[in-house]
Amino acid sequence: MATQDQRGGYLKEHIARSIREVASMLHAGNLRNDELDYLYFKIDRIEHILALSLQVVDIECSVFQHVRNAKELIAHEFDRVSNTDDQAYCTEKVYSGNRGRPRYDVQEAQLQFFVGFGFKVPDMAKMLAVSQATVNRRLRDYGISLSTKFCQMSDSELDEVIKNVKEHFPRSGYRVTLGILRSMGYHVQELRVRESLRRVDIEGVLMRSLQLQIIHRRKYTVYGPNALWYVDTNHKLIRYDVLLRRPFHIKTQVCIYLGGRSTSAYELP
User: Fold this and answer.
1) Of the residues 46, 57, 128, 169, which has the fewest C-beta atoms closer than 10 A?
2) 109-139 per-position pLDDT tens digit
3) Is 243 helix (H, G, I), strand (E, B) or coil?
4) Where does the pLDDT of residue 266 fall: very low under 50, low under 70, confident under 90, or very high at 90 and above?
């Protein structure tokens, strides 16, 4: 059985190994957002272990100070990288000198590009950082119609194309088939592709329908209100010493209250 000195030695070696791992990643530089988040979690755990280790081994106060300084530096760098990553594309504004707000400079080539790849108006607005009304106005101004982008081909022609696709991809469903058609330059409505697959490959449609994994949801049967409750806990913030509790009523799914507490049971010197 290991003595107290041996346990203290193992503990010191574990802490030193964790600190060396953090130091090696910091010396590498060019850390991503997720890597900095991992390092912050790692150094926070080291600080927690050091505080608990005072009951077993003697640790100098300077070690705690160095760990705190490293934790603050990592947090500062994490905030800096996060603010840099959040910088998205912003459409420029054109100031004409007239009354009213400036006009967003949405180019026709941009809209043609989005329409050509099947983007919808909400997606365009999100990527251009403008409102959906602005995108609709620019589409009208440039004479771009979302309905005319689809191929004007008959059902029989579409069936022949899908037959050729199914010869190379016999297990493809309507989503994969739709993507293959778009890669071939055929922009067809999703509803037409579904109907064509039912005409061309009805056996495959039935097989895929039978292979669907439907999740069976549990049904609660109680004799009245307030008869059954359950408490849901959220452990995603456990690294920040926060534990959330949310009691729910089974019958109405109403959250009665949202409570939280700190899991920290120590104080650093």
Assistant:
1) 169
2) 999 888 877 788 999 998 888 889 999 999 9
3) strand
4) very low
Distances (CA, A) of 66 to 52, 61, 73, 76, 100: 17, 9, 11, 15, 56
- Predicted confidence (pLDDT) at residue 142 exceeds the cutoff of 70: yes
Helix axes 108-116, 121-128, angle to 10 degrees: 130
User: Helices marked H in the chain — which ranges?
Assistant: 4-28, 33-53, 61-85, 108-116, 121-128, 132-142, 155-168, 174-183, 190-200, 202-210
Q: Let me know: does 167 contact 159? Beta carbons within 8 Å.
A: no
Minimum mean pLDDT range among 61-70, 99-108, 210-219? 210-219
Lowest mean pLDDT among 20-29, 102-111, 185-194: 20-29
CB contact at 8 A, 15 and 46 = yes
pTM of the model: 0.39
Q: Which residues are CB-contacts of 187 (< 8 A; sequence separation ≥ 6)? A: 118, 149, 150, 151, 181
Which residues 6+ apart lie within 8 Å of 32 measured at CB?
Answer: 81
Instruction: Tell me what the mean pLDDT of segment 232-254 comes to.
Output: 65
DSSP letters spanning 154-172: -HHHHHHHHHHHHHH-TT-
